[in-house]
Amino acid sequence: MKRLTILFIMLAMLTSCQAAQPTIPPSLSEGEVTFATEDGIQLSGTVFGQGTTAVVLAHMRNRDQTSWQPFAQVLAERGFTALTFDFRGYGKSGGDVDYRALDKDARAAIAFLRDHGFQRIVCIGASMGGMACGKVSHEPGLAGLVIISSPRQAQVEGVSVYLSRSDFTDLAYPKLFIVCREDRPTSGDVKGMYGWASEPKELKVFSGLVHGTDLFDTEHADEFRELLVDFVANVN
User: Fold this and answer.
1) Model-wide pTM > 0.85
2) Which domains does the chain have, with CATH numbers?
3) Could you tell me the CA-to-CA distances from 217 to 125, 225, 227 in Å, in that order?
């Protein structure tokens, strides 16, 4: 009887320990991936790391996913999963460039991670990519949002893209807004979005006029990198 009691206690302890361990989605491996948007465009992406918190990294206009990949490797080394991807018409992705579909592409990246079991996803976007993240801010599974050097409205190749107050209100998760002081008029737009956003939120203004992920190539690089990593680390 005593042995049986001890056995039950050991089994209970084992079960408790297993339950306390985070579950890493087993079906998502590092490397190149493809996934489809709601309108059937095949997007190209790359997965870094195997953590339980996943980060979508959305690139700027006239860049591609490679602009985010050194930072994606940093996230992987810090224990997170990162997904870089090319918007349609960029890099290895299919389709033609379509700025009206930025939200569809970002939504597909989030859905791809959610379908692989991630329940805690952070969307980080620079400039055009930040607009895309803002447009999908209410997507299920999102636990954090970072907007870097994004305009509130842009007219690109005859297409008007804009963000509104409703994109940033009623969001219970943390939000971070980053811009350089002399990056005008974007600096005013980012501050305006910060003003729209519900708490919790944070605004970081760097000196200079550098735009988006180009901050990685400035004297602010280390602070910028750690600011992003700390934000992801503190997302619940």
Assistant:
1) yes
2) 2-233 (3.40.50.1820)
3) 17, 11, 15
